[in-house]
Amino acid sequence: MKLYGLTGGIASGKSTVSRMLRELGAQVLDADVIAREVVEPGTPGLKAVAERFPGVLGPDGRLDRAKLGARVFGDPTERAALNALLHPLIGQEFFQRTQALAEQGVERVLYDAPLLIENRLHEGMDGVVLVWVPREVQKARLRARDGLDEAAAEARLAAQLPLDEKRQHATWVVDNSGSQEMTRVRVEEVWRAMLARG
Predict the structure, then answer these.
(1) Percent of the chain whose predicted confidence (pLDDT) is above 90
(2) d(Cα 159, Cα 30) in Å, to the nearest integer?
(3) Rounded mean pLDDT, 143-165
(4) What distance in Å separates the CA atoms of residue 177 and residue 174, rounded to the nearest whole number?
(5) CA–CA separation, 196 vs 185, rounded Å?
(6) Inter-residue contact 180 to 15 (CB < 8 Å)
(7) In 11-128, which ranges are continuous DSSP H helix?
């Protein structure tokens, strides 16, 4: 089985590209979805997060993602502590799902992960797709999407490696600063290139 990474940055349009790849027939495992599942009520992940970060559970016993985000985005130490709790759980779940797909005869899987390069997961992969936009476009989209002020948007951008630095690790770059049609054309080119690799 070939394993490819799909990454980008916050508000770069990675979800759009992921959806387009799925429409073309790609099997995509989404790290964000897995990350939410490992902290569902009753999981060891939620118990560990609640113990390390008191006050982040809502009245319904579920994780209050906004409260947790406010604590970790501006503080690298807190963010590292959260990652140390969750990344092993996410990795284990990803491995199990990849194994299950391999047993079904799936020939290639894309792992959609925002921190793919930061966590050095790309090093063992057969290729990496980077969804790229200029930084100012990324910041404007983030502020519009999440209703953030300049400082909050900058803090979130600072939590990830800049897209321009991620480019040096990419096998393919999808420039998502133009129209959806332009992005779709590039995604189709990338998918054909993956299929050509066998």
Answers:
(1) 88
(2) 19
(3) 93
(4) 9
(5) 17
(6) no
(7) 14-23, 31-37, 44-52, 65-72, 76-103
Place of tokens 């980008």: 8
Up-side HSE of residue 156: CA atoms within 13 Å toward CB?
23
Q: What does the pLDDT read at residue 129?
A: 98
Question: What whole-number distance in Å separates Cα of residue 13 and Cα of residue 183?
Answer: 10
**Assigned token pair, 15:** 């979800």
**Rounded Cα–Cα distance for residues 37 and 47 (Å):** 13
CA-based Rg of the chain, rounded to a whole angstrom? Answer: 17
The DSSP-derived string for 121-177 is GGGGSSEEEEEE--HHHHHHHHHHHHT--HHHHHHHHHTS--HHHHGGG-SEEEE-S
* Strand pairing report for 172-175 and 2-7: unpaired
* Nearest Cα residue to 14 out of 78, 84, 22, 109: 22
- Asked if the model's pLDDT at residue 64 lies above 90, the reply is yes
